[in-house]
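call fold(seq) -> tokens
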Amino acid sequence: MDFVQDERRQRARFFILAYPFALIAISLVLNVLLFGIHPIAIALPSKPVIIALVIAAVLLLANHTWLMTTTELTRVKFGMYATPEEWQASGRKREDTAPKGLEELERRHNAHRNSTENTVYFVLLVLVFSVTSPADTAAVVWIAGFGAARLGYSFSYLTGRDGLRGLFMSLSLLCLYGLASYAALAVIA
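ret:
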């Protein structure tokens, strides 16, 4: 039994270590073979890039609104509060909350935290990417794709669909690596 567990751990470690490199390789291949790398030329973003930015911004705002709303609805459903002052005013204690309520609130907090963490990197990368005159198709795929993947990630996380969550996590990371690798390749093109 220990041998089987060790073998599983070894495979898991390998997958965890190889995973980001595989996504980086896929993003490089897509950028080079499918989108084509334009040499870096600093300029205001083209209309398709702006449209992709608007789509991503709307999708990310919808995602944030959804996460915020479902968090508050979970608090209401299970009689939980956000601050010590609210708990005190209600006459309830956190310890009185059903374990299921605490689990669901933690799920929403984790989803929100993950979304925020990924969006910070997206904003940094997309700022650089959008002013380097990228190929319009690359911009639409990587920028709008990130917003769509984050919505899919939140949906699958909140509904407990781990396989689907992994897929959307991979897609959103692929978009981040796509933005980064395109900009890096444009610098050396």
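The CA atoms of residues 42 and 132 lie 5 Å apart.
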